[in-house]
Amino acid sequence: MINPLTIGIDDGYFTQEFKELRLKTLLVGVLCVGKNPENIKMTTVVVDGSDGTLKALEIIEGLRRELASNVNAVFLDGVTVAGFNFIDPEEVNAKTGIPVIILFKTKLKLEKVRAALMKHFSDWRDRYEVIERNYWRAREVITRKKNLRISSYGLELSEASKLISSLQHVSAVPESLRLADLIASELTKHTCLLNILR
Asked: Domains in the chain, ordered, with CATH?
């Protein structure tokens, strides 16, 4: 696949106050042609809210609206954003027709996740189901840089592994997702922008 079109989506930084008051942080989507950034879309997402899937769909539709070709994949860093808000990759795949690949860069302690959700959310079962389903569905795959634990909708794991390898540049994370993380983190590192987002 020559110069695939991919979208990486990741969230920004926030403080504990933002969790307590359910304030907002950034959700950033980066469209890359191969390893080269082509476009960016940003929106806000509620910290510990439940609008993550909707906001991700808005970003995807905004980025692909003017494209002549189909997007080859959407990359997510896990399924949680902005605390315990979440993006349901299965729903994103079903509604867009675009394969969704989830990278799990760290091991999850699901019992601790479940306990935290039960303590703070009346809808904890819905949130936990998305997290648990995707984490247990994930498998380790070999990529050019290192082995990664991924889950994939709409693309076989072997094909997802090849795609990730072709998009690795300075890290094992595919470039569109690496850039989304970098931009979202840098823009929200200092609280002045976060205060505007309130």
From this structure: 5-192 (3.30.2170.10)
Q: Are 62 and 78 in contact (CB under 8 A)?
A: no
Are 49 and 62 contacting, i.e. CB atoms less than 8 angstroms apart?
Answer: no
Q: What would the two tokens of residue 165 be?
A: 């390898």
CA distance linking residue 102 with residue 5, whole number of Å: 16
pTM for this prediction = 0.94
85 three-class SS: strand
Structure tokens at 174: 């595919």
Q: From 101, 112, 105, select the one nearest 72 (Cα to Cα).
A: 101
Chain-centroid distance of CA 126 in Å reads 18
DSSP letter assigned to residue 174: B
Q: List average pLDDT for each run of 10 residues in the chain, which is 198 residues long.
A: 91 79 89 96 95 98 88 97 96 97 93 95 95 95 94 96 95 97 90 68
Q: How many CB atoms lie within 10 A of CB 118?
A: 12
The residue written with tokens 């991700």 in the block is 56
- Residue 188 in tokens: 């929200």
Which H, E and C letters describe 89-108, residue by residue?
HHHHHHHHCCCEEEEECCCC
**For residues 16 and 154, what is the distance between their CA atoms, to the nearest angstrom?**
36
